[in-house]
Specification:
Layout lengths: L4 H5 L19 E7 L11 E6 L8 H16 L3 E2 L7 E12 L8 E7 L8 E7 L8 E12 L5 E12 L7 H12 L10 E4 L1
Parallel strand pairs: 2-3, 2-4
Antiparallel strand pairs: 1-8, 1-9, 4-7, 5-6, 7-8
Length: 201
């Protein structure tokens, strides 16, 4: 048996997501979508403008990349893109991004005692785990939210949210790569199953 096995087995790492104060996985895009069945016939047809959601800076260059990515996906779904302020429907885009430093859960040293786990043939083994991996890398969390509404009434027809967390050093931490990835994941099999949350890897 590898003498290092108890050390590896005892290592633990917890990521704290600063945006929501909760743990979040690194890697896949998590998507949730909501709509009313009676509104589905209105989706994917007619003209639509992609605009900043109320309270969001419409002149943000970062948001512009996400608006363009969302517009491309909506056109794929059958919409005709309209200018801001025009169109029978409007897609309101909201973006949240933040960086955080993950924290470790508990002491960096842990001790475990169990039967028949000894590395050298004893009946009872004692494993001492020392986390030697260093400080976890900084993470960047991004959430893209889109609400599609009727232009005249403001009635919501569909809502989607896509989130992912990557290392700050990852190319996907950059807006130009993150925007199309999140938008594409959000509109997979549009309009989707209402209330379902799924992952796109």
């Amino acid at each position: 048996m590898n003498a290092r096995a108890p050390l590896i087995a005892a290592m633990a790492l917890t990521l704290s997501l600063a945006l929501g104060a909760c743990a979040a996985p690194t890697g896949p895009v998590e998507v949730s979508r909501f709509h009313a069945p009676e509104k589905m016939a209105l989706l994917g047809r007619g003209s639509i403008a992609v605009e900043a959601a109320p309270g969001i800076d419409a002149d943000s260059l970062e948001l512009a990349s996400y608006r363009a990515a969302v517009a491309r996906e909506l056109v794929k779904q059958g919409y005709t893109e309209a200018k801001a302020g025009e169109g029978s429907q409007v897609a309101e885009v909201r973006l949240r991004r933040g960086s955080f430093q993950p924290m470790r859960d508990g002491s960096p040293v842990s001790v475990g005692v169990g039967g028949s786990t000894g590395s050298y043939g004893s009946g009872v083994g004692v494993g001492v785990g020392i986390d030697l991996s260093g400080t976890p890398p900084e993470q960047v969390a991004t959430e893209l939210a889109v609400v599609i509404r009727q232009r005249l009434t403001g009635e919501p027809l569909w809502e989607g949210r896509a989130t992912f967390t990557v290392k700050a050093s990852s190319p996907l931490a950059e807006t130009q790569l993150a925007a199309p990835r999140l938008a594409e994941a959000m509109f997979v099999d549009f309009p989707g199953v209402s209330g379902e949350t799924y992952e796109v890897k």
